[in-house]
Write a structure and sequence with these properties.
Elements (H helix, E strand, L loop, with lengths): L17 E5 L2 E6 L2 E7 L9 E4 L6 H7 L4 E4 L5 E8 L5 H13 L10 H6 L2
Antiparallel strand pairs: 1-2, 2-3, 3-4, 4-6, 5-6
Keywords: Membrane, Transmembrane, Transmembrane helix
Protein name: YjbR protein
Length: about 120
């Protein structure tokens, strides 16, 4: 199995965070929710970084608090409710740590309950 990209960030997340590998990505779960996807692959590198699980209503406040965050759009033009912190951003490390701190404080703007995430924490 490939190593988790940006694994230094796991030190900034709560101890009971669950990391699940997927194809080219790692799903990050906490408190019954999917909170992030860590992605770093050669294919479509513009999508590499931290995918932030959120709702559209929280986009503006998260982007205001952490300006490195951008909208996330798949190549097909499909718009998602996810946000992206690109691993190419100059402030990637600092912004990523800020995101982890928000998760650690159980910030309601980050994370969604899915059937998989709920089952992991039963």
């Amino acid at each position: 199995m490939k190593p988790v990209p940006f694994d230094f960030l796991l030190d900034y997340l709560p101890a009971n965070t669950i990391v699940k590998p997927a194809i080219g990505m790692f799903y990050i779960y906490f408190d019954g929710k999917i909170v992030f996807i860590f992605r770093r692959t050669a294919k479509n590198p513009q999508h590499n970084g931290i995918w932030i699980s959120t709702k559209r209503e929280h986009h503006a406040s998260l982007k205001e608090e952490i300006p490195a965050i951008t909208d996330f759009e798949l190549d097909e033009g499909f718009d998602t409710a996810w946000l992206l912190l690109s691993d190419q951003h100059d402030d990637f490390e600092g912004a990523a740590i800020q995101l982890c701190e928000l998760v650690s404080r159980k910030d309601k703007r980050i994370g969604k309950i899915t059937p998989v995430s709920a089952a992991l924490f039963e």
